[in-house]
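Protocol step 4 of 6: structure prediction from sequence.
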Amino acid sequence: MINIHNNSNTVIIIVHEIYGINNHMINICQSLSQKNFDVICPNLLDDEAPFEYSQEELAYRNFIENIGFMNASNQIKNVLLHIKDNYEKVYIVGFSVGATIAWLCSEEDGLDGIVGYYGSQIRNYLGIEPLCPTMLLFPEEEKSFNVDGLIISLEKKNIEVHKFNGQHGFCDPYSQKYNIKSAQKAFNRMVEFFLKH
């Protein structure tokens, strides 16, 4: 678990991808901390070391078989329950499966907003009606589904959705899919979202 305190009245809970708390997640936590937010990133892999990107299939199977979306969202809801009285503002930011987990938490009390980066599995949970401001960030293309079709469904729910050049993983500097311009734009949009809400 990463836990960075700046004595802020705002905390951001980061929900990692299938790989666990890797260098990309550490960077995101540090970048948000530098903006004077408190940051918490629970390890959904039970403190195991993160998977390598070359182990994508293994990491995904581990997530589906041993963690799962409902269990993971319950873990994040427990974190929210324990910290929400200590802060004026609480946000959740998720990446990939983490974005879907954030989406599953968006109906909880005490949450001031969620941001989801390329949450492709959100398409399986469109019955969710977020009770907090919600911003979702997608790449132009995804291997497994039509991004524009999902965006149309989400915009009907009055959700802020942005699409960026690149593929799934565009904001990860350790990924071959890294797109520096899209990553910077998305990060700036996220920070603006926190300041606005």
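Step 5 (inspection) to follow. Strands lie at 2-4, 10-15, 38-41, 89-95, 113-117, 134-141, 160-167.
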